[in-house]
Amino acid sequence: MKKLIEVLFIFCCTSTVVWAQRKSAPKETIIQAPSSSNRSKVISKNNDGPSKNLNPTGTLALGISTSTSSGIFGGLTAKKVWMNNNKIQSLIGVDLSIIKDYREFDSPYSYNGRGYTEGKLNQLIVIRPEYGRQWTLFKKPSEGGAALKGLIATGPNIGMQMPYHVDISYVNPGSGKSSILSIPMSQTYDNTYQRTTILGESSFFKGASESIYVPGWHLKGAFNVELDSFKQNYLALEMGFIVDYFSKPIEMLNQTPQRSVYTTGYLTFFFGKSK
Predict the structure, then answer these.
(1) Domain limits, the chain
(2) Whole-prediction pTM value?
(3) Which CATH architecture has domain 53-274?
């Protein structure tokens, strides 16, 4: 009986040790290769970001221009572009531009450093709403770089013929007192104000309330260089040529032939967002 008890005690101890070793042993890890469907999901997620940047669906941009028919500042431009496909895009836009006559020159006479344009009667501001198409000539590389596009746009235009004002020193014949007045340049030629001295040009929009509006049409052709940028920012340089036609001749300078057609070469820097 005593031996039977010893055998049972040894069996219980041995079973307990074996069970403890099995429990403490590390479990086997099974590594399963990803299925083809999972791999395709991972690849598509990784490609989503770059594809959106390389192939935007549209662009909204604002531009600052200089042109051959203005000074350093030629005007402002806003445009919206839609991607029809990889090669062709539709666009709408509006230009606000300043046009000067190529025969203008500054007067050699000045008062306290203030100048004015000799013989200038009117200033011309043109508003051009337009619709056009844009073609991709050279696509932007996937690793980054510039893209070259060509565009043609057309639409109506509105010419704002605004009287050119100058400041004069006027002496009243009755009282003999002098005063400074802002008058249209045309009145310095018709003896409305006698015994006057031109001091310089007035503010640019001084004659806005006296403007005459002349409708017309315009045609634009240009090349657009879209620059490389970060994320969805849009940067571009546009170089082109515009022909403006007005329904009646625009009077710009004194004793010079009036014209209905004006041609302009321009350069515009655009900045905006691509979606």
Answers:
(1) 53-274
(2) 0.74
(3) Beta Barrel (2.40)
